[in-house]
Design a protein that fits this description.
Its main location: cytoplasm. This is Snurportin-1. Belongs to the snurportin family. Keywords: Cytoplasm, Nucleus, RNA-binding, Transport. Helices cover 33% and strands 24% of the residues. By secondary structure, the protein is of the alpha+beta class. The protein contains ten helices and 14 strands. It has one domain: DNA ligase/mRNA capping enzyme (D-amino Acid Aminotransferase, Chain A, domain 1), CATH 3.30.470.30. Strand 3 and strand 4 form a beta hairpin. Strands 3, 4, 5, 6, 7, 8 and 9 form a seven-stranded mixed beta sheet that branches. Strands 1-14-13-2-10 form a five-stranded mixed beta sheet, with helices on both faces. A two-stranded antiparallel sheet has the order 11-12. The chain is globular, with a radius of gyration of 26 Å.
């Protein structure tokens, strides 16, 4: 009796709401929350201005204003020294349950796109796919994670901590980066990062303290590509003695931030069939910086690094509702089309078949007109 109840509990309800209906509701909820947040911020601004009053005389008593301390830098030296002692110089990332829970399940995780070719009279693809969606393709094979930056050893550098998508546990110790501090990125740690040093950037949640989660998908991806292109390259650390003695170079941490290719709206059927889907089916060739083959001493320089080509395996493609905000957890506002689910079925094949069917129906309709 208990086993049957458990089996029944795991099964989806018979009257399960369709993905399109859940997507519509999620988008309406986002719009309502954004409007509410805007109204609240507007009211706060109005209240702040309402409290401002002009005195009878602009030259009022000095006691109404805070006094500026006229002391030298010596008074601040002790405070700086004390605060500096509190910070550990080590690159170890804290992994307490409370810290892990803070970052757990914060990535926007896509639902598998629901579709089937069995019913020739229905089109399960989103009706507004052409006008209201954007795509990322190819999505590389790797481990989904959050990249969080903190202040580095200098004002021009930062340190990155990678947190796992589901549990929020640290994946690596802090490593150097050219990203600004107080930045949070949605990333994929490449499956072969030890050989290519690549950290793929899917989305941007915060950049240099500026919150971007409430921005629409198109805006976030534009911001991601623009800001990443402005960053300077980070040279890989020199080869270790073991690798210089005949072994291949192994990256101790990711040194290359690589944006997953973005395909903006409109996603016309020719664009999807000729660019987006083929990109998801093929490997992507990129060039990364690597130390020179000869042994070097001291810190590596960009000028002494060499360019090496790497092929990146594709895992599929992601679709986003263009006007959707970034939200934590599994969301119907983002849809996943994997390249290969198992040996017998492929969502990518089904997706392509449905696109071709829609193209044929569109051409036949145009001929009738």
């Amino acid at each position: 009796m208990s086993s049957s109840r458990k089996d029944a509990f795991k099964l989806p309800p018979l009257d399960r709401i369709s993905q399109a209906a859940r997507r519509k509701k999620a988008l309406e909820d986002q719009k309502r929350k954004r409007a509410l947040k805007f109204d609240q911020s507007r009211n706060l601004s109005l209240d702040a201005f309402a409290e401002l009053t002009l005195g009878q005389d602009e030259d009022e008593d000095e006691t109404l204003y805070p006094k500026v301390v006229q002391s030298g830098l010596a008074s601040f030296a002790s405070a700086f020294t004390q605060s500096k002692k509190k910070h550990s110089p080590k690159n170890h990332v804290k992994s307490s349950p409370a810290t892990n829970a803070r970052w757990a399940d914060k990535c926007m995780y896509a639902e598998l796109l629901e579709m089937s070719c069995k019913d020739v009279h229905s089109d399960p693809l989103p009706s507004d796919l052409h006008t209201s969606w954007v795509a990322l393709s190819p999505v590389p094979v790797g481990k989904r994670c959050l990249a969080i930056t903190r202040e580095g050893p200098s004002f021009t550098s930062s340190k990155i901590s990678l947190r796992s998508r589901l549990l929020g546990k640290p994946l690596l110790s802090y490593f150097p980066s050219t990203l600004p501090t107080n930045t949070i990125l949605d990333c994929i740690l490449d499956a072969d990062w030890r050989s290519n040093g690549i950290l793929h950037v899917l989305d941007v949640i915060r950049w240099k303290g500026q919150e971007l989660a409430d921005c629409e998908a198109g805006m976030r991806f534009w911001w991601r590509d623009t800001r990443l292109s402005e960053l300077s390259s980070l040279p890989p650390p020199p080869s270790s003695p073991s690798s210089s003695q005949g072994g291949s170079y192994s990256y101790p941490y990711p040194t290359t931030l690589l944006a997953v290719p973005y395909h903006p709206a409109p996603l016309t059927i020719p664009t999807l069939l000729d660019i987006v889907v083929p990109a998801a089916r093929n490997t992507r060739i990129v060039e990364v910086l690597a130390p020179p083959a000869h042994e070097t001493t001291g810190d590596m320089d960009i000028d002494t690094a060499t360019q090496i080509s790497h092929s990146l395996s594709s895992d599929g493609l992601l679709l986003y509702v263009a006007e959707a905000c970034y939200e934590s957890g599994t969301s119907p506002l983002s849809s996943w089309v994997p390249l290969q689910e198992d040996a017998n079925s492929s969502s990518m094949d089904t997706f392509e078949q449905l696109l071709r069917r829609r193209a044929e129906e569109g051409s036949s309709l145009a001929m009738d007109i």
